[in-house]
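Methods — Computational structure assignment.
A single polypeptide chain was analysed. Its primary sequence is given first, followed by the predicted tertiary structure written as structure tokens.
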Amino acid sequence: MAALVILGFVWNANKKDLGPVSDTVLNENAALIVGEPAAPTTIDVFEDFLCPVCQQFEKQSGQPIIDAVNSGKLRVRYHMLTFLNSRSASGDYSERAAGALQCVGDAKDPALFFRFHTALFVDQPKENGDSDHSDAQLAQIATAQGAAPPTPQCIATGAKLAEAKQAAAQSRTQLEKAMETTAVGTPTVLLNGEPVNGITDGPGWLTAILTKETE
């Protein structure tokens, strides 16, 4: 069985027919959808808050994505996966961070969402490290980014943990369908249900799809 190593993860090179990607499911289980519904381009971004390559992706493409959203050119559906839980000190950091983002998303404030999302990657715990952020610390990060009191309270109590876990499972299923394999990794970007290439080589991938979609 052949395998291809991409972004530090092993992807099964043997394709499987897992059925079509459901745009409805992707739309319903995103942590937050940012951008105007009438934006000419919609992408799905799959990340794990413990993933170091996702941190690189955020450094390179985070601000260009924000700029494209703010200019009305792009709509983004964010999906937070949790398969790196076992590599966190607490054993559940990925899902707790995803739950925290769900709390922030409920505030319906895209600017806050982007600030918190970026802050978690800037202050990212190490894979297989000795510590990660507690729920109280995640709540403090949200407060520092301007969240109103109900949001950090939601984070501190883990109110959205079950919702985040369910969304992560559904998102991973859709990603497996898009890749036609159960061996998937992050970061991944889908455009019209298909993976976008070159997303860790800088923001050129975004310029390319925005140009193509508006031609």
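Note: The CA atoms of residues 3 and 12 lie 5 Å apart.
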